Amino acid sequence: MPFFRTPALLRHAFPSCYWQIPKPLHEQPTLYLTFDDGPVPEATPDVLDVLDRYGVKASFFCVGDNVRKHPALFREVLRAGHTVGNHTFHHVKGWQTSLTHYLKEVSMCRHVMEDTAGTALPRLFRPPYGRITPKQLCALRKDYAIVMWDILTHDYDPRLQADALIPQLKPLLRHGSILVFHDSIKAYPRMIRLLPAIIEAALARGFSFATLEEGLAPTLHALTPTASYKSSS
Ligand SMILES: [Zn+2]
């Protein structure tokens, strides 16, 4: 059985990362939906449609090379009021990448995102596969809020069925949870069925949704070096 909730041992190994939003802005129970690996035309527009239908704002950890290939789609994500974060340029594995190369990957991703957006963006980073070495983490956390997750949906696993995942995931929702979905071709068949089911279950239980930019606003403002950065909220 896969882990849906991140084990406490792993959280304790990386205490400087965000696994949940510790002090949610609102009194009301709030969830943070995140989508990794886009933007791609085969998945991201449908995610935007679902989020729009429910009036939900979310956060997208983008792969720089996908932003380069699909700049208009990236701008569409921003225009819809969602937050974007950095997921490296080529979706590299931290454990197999030197510190210098890893930092270059993050920097390339930031540049293509900010050039495409035409503005500075919030300093959010999620390591691909959740794999990052202590040295990489130490170097990046000076400039970025490193965001992991509370609940992994396993939407990328073709051995699992969306119908079986939904009842496993619903009881795990809690105030401040960060959920990971993927706007990727591989995850699409499960993700596109899970997403509305999870949103509806959450709304029925009184949860609201916010972006990581809202949930981590004080941290992000402290990290942002330029005066040009403005919170979209
Ligand atoms: Zn990824």
Q: Tell me the distance between the termini.
A: 39 Å
Average pLDDT confidence is 92
SSE order, as H and E?
HEHEHHEHEHEEHEHEHH
The global form is: globular
Radius of gyration, in angstroms, nearest whole number: 16 Å
Enumerate how many helices there are, as a single number: 10
CATH class: Alpha Beta
Name the CATH architecture.
Alpha-Beta Barrel
Largest sheet: 6 strands, parallel
Keywords: Hydrolase, Metal-binding
InterPro entries: Glyco_hydro/deAcase_b/a-brl, NODB_dom, Polysacc_deacetylase_ArnD
Protein name: Peptidoglycan/xylan/chitin deacetylase (PgdA/CDA1 family)
Pfam family, one: Polysacc_deac_1
Describe this structure in words.
This protein is α/β, with parallel strands linked by helices. It has a single domain (29-223), classed as TIM Barrel (Alpha-Beta Barrel), CATH 3.20.20. The protein has 10 helices and 8 strands. Strands 1, 2, 3, 6, 7 and 8 form a 6-stranded parallel β-sheet that branches. The protein has a two-stranded parallel sheet with strand order 4-5. Strand 1, helix 2 and strand 2 form a beta-alpha-beta unit. Zinc ion binds at residues 36-37, 87, 91, 128. Zinc ion binds next to loops.
How is the topology of this model organized?
Elements: H1 8-13, E1 30-36, H2 44-54, E2 59-62, H3 64-69, H4 71-79, E3 83-86, H5 99-117, E4 124-125, H6 134-140, E5 145-146, E6 151-152, H7 162-169, E7 178-182, H8 188-204, E8 208-209, H9 212-215, H10 217-223
Parallel strand pairs: 1-2, 1-7, 1-8, 2-3, 4-5, 6-7
The structure holds zinc ion.
